[in-house]
């Protein structure tokens, strides 16, 4: 969620930082165009390259690179759904104040930006509890499938671990790169995760 694209550019760069670069690579056209609009005299160094990780996911010819790992995961967990979470703004491993400290350290803090973060945190909280609430019906509806919760690295995994203890087929796993986990899954359930 971006409150607006110009704001995203303003908190992630300055004219000085863009000037120091030989090239600036973007995952998509929207971001690149936003930078071109702001840094009109430096457009030659702004390029859309995509994300190589996504090429691995989308192009079947690359799936063989992960076959052994996918097989190992499936041998361990059987058929599975994966839930890569992205709730660090609400369920941060350093707590609410820690999340705000991290946010402030990486941004040009204004009243508007703090207000946005607080609104986003409330949004993330609602989605987070929606994901917590869906675990039980998912587990019961698919008793022969494993439900893999993969918390974002910024998250406190303890609430997920406590929840998983209630179900025989729910596991909290953060192991290895995410690509083989996605390729081996029968379904991916996410909200705003770049892994999906």
Care to describe what's here?
- By secondary structure, this protein is α/β, with parallel strands linked by helices.
- It has helices spanning about 5-10, 15-20, 30-40, 50-60, 65-75, 95-105, 110-140, 160-165, 180-185; strands at about 25, 45-50, 80-85, 145-150, 170, 185-190.
- It has a four-stranded parallel β-sheet, sandwiched between helices. Strands 1-2 form a two-stranded parallel ribbon.
- The chain starts with a helix and ends in an 8-residue tail after the last strand.
- The protein contains nine helices and six strands; from the N terminus they run H-H-E-H-E-H-H-E-H-H-E-H-E-H-E.
Helix/strand order: HHEHEHHEHHEHEHE
Spatial extent as radius of gyration: 19 Å
Helix content: 40-55%
How many strands appear in the DSSP assignment? 6
Query: Mean of the pLDDT scores?
Result: 87
Order of strands in the sheet with most strands? 5-4-3-6
Q: Look at the helices and sheets and give the structural class.
A: alpha/beta
Number of helices: 9
> Percent of residues in beta strands?
5-15%
Q: What distance separates the N and C termini?
A: 15 Å
Shape, per Cα inertia axes? flat
Low-confidence stretches: none
Main β-sheet description: 4 strands, parallel
């Amino acid at each position: 969620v971006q409150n607006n694209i110009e704001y995203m550019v303003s908190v992630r760069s300055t004219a000085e930082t863009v000037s120091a670069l030989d090239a600036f690579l973007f995952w998509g056209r929207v971001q690149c165009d936003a930078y071109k609009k702001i840094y009109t005299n430096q457009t030659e160094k702004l390029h859309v390259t995509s994300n190589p990780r996504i090429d691995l996911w989308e192009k079947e010819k690359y799936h063989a690179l992960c076959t052994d790992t996918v097989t190992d995961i499936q041998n361990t967990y059987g058929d599975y759904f994966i839930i890569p979470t992205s709730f660090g703004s609400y369920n941060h491993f350093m707590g609410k104040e820690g999340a705000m400290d991290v946010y402030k350290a990486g941004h040009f803090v204004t009243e508007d930006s703090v207000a946005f973060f607080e609104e986003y945190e409330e949004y993330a909280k609602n989605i987070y509890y929606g994901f917590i609430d869906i675990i039980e019906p998912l587990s019961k509806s698919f008793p022969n499938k494993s439900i893999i919760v993969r918390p974002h690295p910024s998250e406190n995994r303890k609430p997920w671990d406590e929840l998983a203890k209630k179900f025989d087929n729910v596991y909290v796993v953060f192991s290895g790169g995410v690509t083989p986990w996605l390729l081996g899954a029968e379904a991916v359930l996410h909200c705003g995760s770049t892994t999906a």
